[in-house]
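$ run holo --ligand "copper (II) ion" --emit tokens
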Amino acid sequence: MSSSKSSKIFFYILILTLVFSGLSFYTNYAVASNPKTIYVELSQFKYNPGRIIVNKGDTVILELRSTDVTHGFYIDGYNINVEAPPGEVVTIRITADMVGKFKIRCSVTCGPLHPFMVGDFLVEENNVNTPFIVSIGLILLFGIITLIKVMGGVEI
Ligand SMILES: [Cu+2]
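-- output --
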């Protein structure tokens, strides 16, 4: 194998790796399909997951649990504001009828960094998980290119 050929293969593997890491970053988010329960952990000073993604029209059930002190769960624009005392599971049901990005905020003063306890509630218009589909497409594309390069030695 010539050094230029192996460096090209290396290049494609590198791209594949980047795509995979981008994909895995994306899957760290909670993506709801209809209907779905999402478990959210509240602690000083964050929500886990910090980003909840649903499709328009979805009914999503959130199970909130605080691991330390009482926190609040307020969704800007969705008229939701509940308190989650430690050790309790607080269940809320949301019908995602408005598309957009809505801030989740802690509505209970829970400590010095309380104002920074925020998250995102994303309601998407489309039914498909576009970044996921694009990532899969890219992986297939680079996989095929790499196969052609390795198997046939064809210059592209
Ligand atoms: Cu808090």
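-- notes --
The longest helix spans residues 3-26.
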